[in-house]
Amino acid sequence: MPAAFFIAWEAKMLRIVMMGTGPFAAPTFRRLLASPHNVLALLTQPPRAMRGNRQAPLSPMRAVAEEFDLPIHWPESVNTPESHEILRAYAADLFVVCDYGQILSADTLMLAKLGGINLHGSLLPKYRGAAPVNWAMYNGDAETGVTVIHMTPKLDGGPILAIAKTPIDADEDAVELEERLSLIGIEPVIDSIALLEKHGNNPPGQLQDPALVTKARRLRKEDGDLPWARTAAEIYNQHRAFQPWPGTYTHWLRDGAEPLRLIVKRMTPLASDARVAPGQVASTDEGRLVVATAGGQIALDEIQPAGKRVMQAAEFLNGYGLRAGDRFGSFEPLPGTDNIPPASPGSRA
């Protein structure tokens, strides 16, 4: 916050406006509602439009707010004059922000006496951005955690008030890790609020080192495409990291037929190397579908052919006739073509 905004502060129970949308924020929200502090309202993202005029499911944060009969606002932007009018009416001491999906401007932060704090799902300054849990797992990090910052208009760039670390389990996925981090983050938020109660809006905090900043951009659908030229460990990390969306997928590059898109629901990394090229099916023995990588192999345990139900590997092999030596890889359809590659020499009919 600007130096001119620092004020004398007498410790007291705080008037708090919560800002959050996703499930990562819900445990902290419940803890604040059970605290002596006065939680005034929830600001959350507008409901997503649904196909066929179906009603959007209730977000985790809206569900909690309705349970406690708390006022709910979902402005398209928190930084507009209309949103400022709503916030000004609450005369909040503090904004608590977590998994909200909007960046608060300097003018917005000024509407609370102590500004805002944000609970972020990484060890800042690593993984600033929208998908910190996913990218930490994708990169094979052994450790991650949560950070609470005193907010500035710079995305995830404020001074650090509290931090908590945890190892990343070798077999948990991003959904499981995010759930654990949401619980780990509760006490750092409470500790950070206590700092603000004691010190006002100039609490002792650790500045982030710009040289250590890394980014965690939003996930894209194409991030789920499996790159068989990477190692089995890296591919397994990708599969765990991109749950539940975009998931992971590949294409069976069938000779003389249109490639078949396969969504991978479950896989197992294997340490042994195959004597075939990355992306080739190394074995279909005993109902297992094993694919070679650049180091090690991957067993595709459960897969879902495009437009079909999920199948165990053995059922897929029996029904589709895939064999050792067949290839998996990326495929982008070309507009205006039938998308069927020619049969390669020596391919079976």
From TrEMBL:
<keyword id="KW-0648">Protein biosynthesis</keyword>
<feature type="domain" description="Formyl transferase N-terminal">
    <location>
        <begin position="15"/>
        <end position="182"/>
    </location>
</feature>
<dbReference type="Pfam" id="PF00551">
    <property type="entry name" value="Formyl_trans_N"/>
</dbReference>
<keyword id="KW-0808">Transferase</keyword>
<comment type="similarity">
    <text>Belongs to the Fmt family.</text>
</comment>
<dbReference type="InterPro" id="IPR036477">
    <property type="entry name" value="Formyl_transf_N_sf"/>
</dbReference>
<feature type="domain" description="Formyl transferase C-terminal">
    <location>
        <begin position="218"/>
        <end position="320"/>
    </location>
</feature>
<feature type="binding site">
    <location>
        <begin position="122"/>
        <end position="125"/>
    </location>
    <ligand>
        <name>(6S)-5,6,7,8-tetrahydrofolate</name>
    </ligand>
</feature>
<dbReference type="GO" id="GO:0005829">
    <property type="term" value="C:cytosol"/>
</dbReference>
<dbReference type="InterPro" id="IPR041711">
    <property type="entry name" value="Met-tRNA-FMT_N"/>
</dbReference>
<dbReference type="InterPro" id="IPR005793">
    <property type="entry name" value="Formyl_trans_C"/>
</dbReference>
<dbReference type="InterPro" id="IPR002376">
    <property type="entry name" value="Formyl_transf_N"/>
</dbReference>
<dbReference type="Pfam" id="PF02911">
    <property type="entry name" value="Formyl_trans_C"/>
</dbReference>
<dbReference type="InterPro" id="IPR044135">
    <property type="entry name" value="Met-tRNA-FMT_C"/>
</dbReference>
<dbReference type="InterPro" id="IPR005794">
    <property type="entry name" value="Fmt"/>
</dbReference>
<dbReference type="GO" id="GO:0004479">
    <property type="term" value="F:methionyl-tRNA formyltransferase activity"/>
</dbReference>
<protein>
    <recommendedName>
        <fullName>Methionyl-tRNA formyltransferase</fullName>
        <ecNumber>2.1.2.9</ecNumber>
    </recommendedName>
</protein>
<dbReference type="InterPro" id="IPR011034">
    <property type="entry name" value="Formyl_transferase-like_C_sf"/>
</dbReference>
<comment type="function">
    <text>Attaches a formyl group to the free amino group of methionyl-tRNA(fMet). The formyl group appears to play a dual role in the initiator identity of N-formylmethionyl-tRNA by promoting its recognition by IF2 and preventing the misappropriation of this tRNA by the elongation apparatus.</text>
</comment>
